[in-house]
Amino acid sequence: MPSLATPPRHALMAGLLGLILLLVSVDEAHADAPSIATLDWTIAETLVALGTMPRAVAQVDAYREWVGEPGLATDVIDLGLRTQPNLELLASLSPDRILISPMFANLTPRLLRIAPVDNLELYTPDTDTWQQMRRLTRRVARLVERPAAGEALIEATEARLAQLRERLPGEQRSLLIVQFMDARHVRVFGAGGLYQAVLDRLGLANAWQRPTNPWGFSLVGIEALVDLDARLVVVEPLPVGVATRLAGSGLWQALPSVQDGTSIRLPPVWSFGALPSARRFAEVLTTALEGNDGV
């Protein structure tokens, strides 16, 4: 009778065979996955989150700076500028599909000479942002033949945001979410944008109630923020030299949240993203708010 600590030889062989078959099936599934190129970072992050790494993406280094996570694989090919991609390189890759957003629609005739093109829209006026992100996720998932992965991504994101909402300390001040364009001008994020959609699901108030553009932000001078008594949330990256200039800016130092030391600085989160960026923003914001008393 064999020892309980030593499985029979046939059991070992069966287990090994099962592992081999599993690895083969994974490799075959990967081989069957369509080869996708995209010029759009929101589509790129969605592809990665769905488990379908794009073959090529425009401005890969800038993606890593502005989007960060989910990360692109080291072998993802850089197509050059998003607005002026290297079409010869793209053609040499023979992608199955090219995914773009309306921002790059003018390139469609040239891209169609290389592969079928799908134009995926997000951030349309007077439409619920969260529902748009869900629709984009489902459409991308269908295009890469992974509809179940799309549903799983939606469910996991919404469940995680519900968990984060429960973690937040009570009695939070209104937030004022900005991203610097230069030392005197910021994007302030409000209605219609990704950050607002996340705030709504976390039960947090946004101090910026003024009109916004279709991407959910207003471009204003710092002086427009002085009269708003709210916790300031600065989303990186900062343009070169801005941090030094702010240290000596009387206008910046006059902001209530800067004066009382309650301002928050967050790592880069793609403000024009979809569900992956929404989850990342919720994660980093919740962590930052947990680190103080919320008043």
UniProtKB/TrEMBL annotation:
Under the heading Gene3D superfamilies, the entry gives: Nitrogenase molybdenum iron protein domain
Q: Where in the cell is it found?
A: Cell envelope
Broad class of where this protein is predominantly found: other
Domain Fe/B12 periplasmic-binding: where?
Answer: 35-293
Q: Which UniProt keywords apply?
A: Ion transport, Iron, Iron transport, Signal, Transport
**Which CDD domains would you find in this protein's record?**
FhuD
- The reply on keyword DNA-binding is no
Q: Name one Pfam family in it.
A: Peripla_BP_2
InterPro entries xref list: ABC_transptr_periplasmic_BD, Bact_iron-sidero_bind
- At the top level, the lineage of the source is Bacteria
Q: Read off the SUPFAM superfamilies from this record.
A: Helical backbone' metal receptor
Query: What does the sequence similarity comment in the record state about its family?
Result: Belongs to the bacterial solute-binding protein 8 family.
PANTHER family per UniProt: IRON III DICITRATE-BINDING PERIPLASMIC PROTEIN, IRON(3+)-HYDROXAMATE-BINDING PROTEIN FHUD
Query: What protein name applies here?
Result: ABC transporter substrate-binding protein
* Organism whose genome encodes this protein: Halomonas kalidii
Q: What taxonomic classification does the UniProt entry list for its organism? A: Bacteria, Pseudomonadati, Pseudomonadota, Gammaproteobacteria, Oceanospirillales
